[in-house]
Amino acid sequence: xxxxxxPPLQRVASFLEHVDVGEYVVxxxxxxxxxxxxGLDKKxxxxxxxxxxxxYASSPDFLTMSSPVGPMSDAQNRRTLxxxxxxxxxxxxxxxxxxxxxxxxxxxxxxxxxxxLAEERLMEVAEAWNCTPGCGxxxxxxxxxxxxxxAIDLTDCEVYSYQSDLESDxxxxxxxxxxxxxFFYTRRQKRILYFSCRGCAKGRDxxxxxxxxxxxxxSESEGPTQMSQFDIEI
Length: 234
Description:
disordered C terminus; 6 helices; alpha+beta
């Protein structure tokens, strides 16, 4: 999966990396990927396709078997599942998601529902954005979704979420209070935009380790300090 550049998206993503909202810290990811595969991703995708075919073909209901990504008898749907797995592997290199299957994901009703869920969790982040010099010319909601719309066609995409087991992935790490994650996938553009946020208890996140942050917002400061990187359990 190739990471694509989109300056408006990167501006919002930089802010979301580490936002101190007072009682806890919000850590977010907002990244755009091309579904054109090469190298190791292409090999893993091929390996996953072989595994999917073996597993689903062994079921007597294979031809009619449905899933969040659609009937698994359809090669295009199996490819979609592989893309979701590859994005997670790219985002969280310390974890291996190659054993995930279709039931680990959920298809959202639509873009509007995903937007509503995200905005509900990020109300305090929106306040922080609006109070930060250099960010408040346009409100957070408008800045976020206009950047997303510039990166991907929201009128022609499917929205998925990974259903965390809270044990073998980053969403269950100590100190995690809440999380959400969305994959906005457009087959026509062959792109996936991954958007996730996690609320972390103070003192339990590792944002103060030796790795410098690049621009985090601190609710107790008068503006940006140094900035640091985004799941609602659905």
